[in-house]
Amino acid sequence: MPIIQIKVAAPKSRVTTRRISEHLLEVTSKVLNKKPEVTAIAIEYVDPEDWFIAGKPLSESGLASFYFDIRITDETNTKAEKAQYIREAFHGLERILGPLHPESYIHVHDVRAAAYGFGGKTQEYRFQHNG
Question: Could you count the other beta carbons within 10 Å of the beta carbon of residue 10?
Answer without folding.
Answer: 22
